[in-house]
From TrEMBL:
Organismal lineage: Bacteria, Pseudomonadati, Bacteroidota, Flavobacteriia, Flavobacteriales
Gene3D superfamilies (UniProt xref): Winged helix-like DNA-binding domain superfamily/Winged helix DNA-binding domain (1.10.10.10)
Keyword Electron transport: no
Gene Ontology MF terms: DNA binding
Keyword field contains Transcription: yes
Domain HTH hxlR-type, first and last residues per copy: 12-110
Domain of life: Bacteria
Protein name in UniProt: Transcriptional regulator
Keywords from the named record: DNA-binding, Transcription, Transcription regulation
InterPro entries: HTH_HxlR (IPR002577), WH-like_DNA-bd_sf (IPR036388), WH_DNA-bd_sf (IPR036390)
Provenance organism: Flavobacterium pallidum
PROSITE patterns noted in UniProt: HTH_HXLR
Matches recorded under Pfam families: HxlR
């Protein structure tokens, strides 16, 4: 069984949000589910850099945190669909605001990210 190496620190709202949303693909998964991409294969196509295993793990964590729900249809082959819970829907304006901030500072963010990695920004 998995045992955490670093104990949970849930002293403030940022700690709580970090615990729930920590994971490279979770914010994108929530956004794409809200946009209507409900099946695991659709989500995999929207995030091709993520492995199926990692997406499955992160979807399970989002489900455990009650941000999404999973419906398994009794057909052959089994069909699975995800949807946002009412609780998960409350995150969409926050995610949209973060995305808008990223769009507003896109060039600057690209430059600082690439500078840190030792690369150069590619002009648009």
């Amino acid at each position: 069984m998995y045992e955490r190496k670093i104990p949970l620190n849930l002293n403030c709202g940022l700690d709580l949000v970090g615990e729930v949303l920590y994971g490279k693909w979770k914010i994108r998964l929530l956004w794409f589910i809200e946009q209507g991409h409900k099946r695991p294969s659709e989500l995999q196509r929207k995030i091709p850099d993520a492995s199926r295993r990692v997406l499955t793990i992160q979807l399970k964590e989002l489900e455990d945190h009650e941000l999404i729900s999973k419906v398994i249809y009794a057909v052959v082959p089994p069909k699975v669909e995800y949807s946002l819970t009412d609780f998960g829907k409350t995150l969409i304006p926050v995610i949209a605001a973060i995305g808008n901030w990223g769009d507003s500072y896109e060039q600057r963010l690209r430059e600082v990210i690439l500078k840190r990695q030792g690369g150069e920004a590619v002009p648009d």
